[in-house]
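Recall from the previous lesson that a structure prediction takes nothing but the amino acid sequence as input. Here we apply that procedure to GNAT domain from Dillenia turbinata. The sequence below is the only information supplied.
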Amino acid sequence: MDQEHEITLRKLTVDDVDDFMVWATDPKVAHFGSWEPYASVEDAIAYMENVVVPHPWFRAICLNNSPIGAISVTSSSGADKCRGEMGYVLASAYWGKGIVTKAVKIAAKMVFEEREEMERVEALVDVENGGSHRVLEKAGFVREGVFEEIFCAERKN
Ligand SMILES: CC(C)(COP(=O)(O)OP(=O)(O)OC[C@H]1O[C@@H](n2cnc3c(N)ncnc32)[C@H](O)[C@@H]1OP(=O)(O)O)[C@@H](O)C(=O)NCCC(=O)NCCS
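The prediction returns the following tokens.
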């Protein structure tokens, strides 16, 4: 299947919730993420209303205008506003067809065009997420390093 010309990005809206549920409920898609698979449409709608819709750069990855995944670039603020962190997910039925590589290329181009202040788009990927590493390599991202260990302190109260 030649999908090279069929992948587009557009805003994801609450009306897309049925498509969103396809990947958001899939444990394979959530496996490397910091989220649990969604169990209810109500929770998905709340996420879409509270996070997706107000997000400055959150797009549906569409095949023939139907969402099959999502990609976002979250900007830092203040002195770090020149940096954006990219994240993406794709419904597992479409894995391995070059779709996210295409989406990453389109998204990076759009963000650099739309955001004059943006100098870097970064992605943090689990060391075991080989598919995501390969996507970024194919999209022209440069591997800068590996976090051996991450220390953090969390609020106690
Ligand atoms: C990772 C993910 C985004 C890849 O999307 P995709 O559209 O299937 O990616 P592409 O088809 O563009 O490219 C995948 C590449 O990774 C390779 N690949 C897949 N699994 C791999 C693995 N375990 N180890 C190494 N390479 C792997 C594929 O062979 C392909 O490379 P190739 O074109 O050289 O053959 C998709 O699997 C996904 O949504 N996963 C769940 C969410 C996720 O992990 N998001 C990223 C968080 S950082």
